[in-house]
Amino acid sequence: MLEKREKEIIILTKKLENDYSESLPGVKNLTAQENNLLSEKETLQAEKALLKENFAFEGYEASNQVQRLMDEANTLQQQLESLHIQKAKLELQFERKKQKSSERLNKMENQKSELKQMVEDLQRDLEAKGDEKNDLLELRMKSWLHGCNIGIGLHIGFYEMVSNKFKIRRISAGLHSASLFSFQPWFLCRRVYFVSSFWVLNLERNHMHFRNLAFLERIFNGTPFTVFTLKAIEPLNLSHKTSKTLEFFSFCKKSKRCGFTILALTIRDSVTKN
């Protein structure tokens, strides 16, 4: 639409230049005629003066000739006035066309600015809706986590990175329940690209494995996925009678459609001794 407006502006500009080019020769022609008539009038006035000087010698015939010349002078004066009127009309028409074209140009410029502002507003609205969607997903996750109830308390802090976007962000969530899974802790990993969630991690001493590989492959659009292993710095012990913090580092095979890497994972067993 902006290109269309610019083309219309160019067309109006050319039209204005053409109107000016067409009117200019007419104005010049009328000016030349005016000058010629003035020159001719001066000549006639000179002849009139000469005839007046010789009036006594010419008699009745000279008087008639003077009258005829006076009539011609009056006629020429009327023609001159008519040319002045025509010239004024042409100048007025030219000014009106020029003003109208200028108003159209200003209107198109304003419309162009309004369209640009609308595009910027829509872009901001789109970004705001994207942020609202992410906030809603995070709120739903937190609501689910707070609704759980179990004796084992875990704190998870991990990072996720999309490689081709060079974007790293930290996600922290409190997990307080795993009663549906026989007191085995489960962690929530969230993908950035397709905004999907999946539950992983079954603790077995010092390794963590995906529990449902078929579900995981379906989430990653059929991309084969190997078992995801987290190696502990020290043997894992999450007994109900201990309270300790373990640090983990992990690696994960990257999907063809989405680069996903967990850089660090911290687990704190906050259960007190019975």
TrEMBL record:
Domain of life: Eukaryota
Keyword Coiled coil set for record: yes
GO MF annotation list: structural constituent of cytoskeleton
A GO cellular component annotation in the UniProt record: cytoskeleton
Keywords carried by this UniProt record: Coiled coil
Coiled-coil positions: 27-139
Claim: Coiled coil is one of the keywords in the record: yes
Protein name: Uncharacterized protein
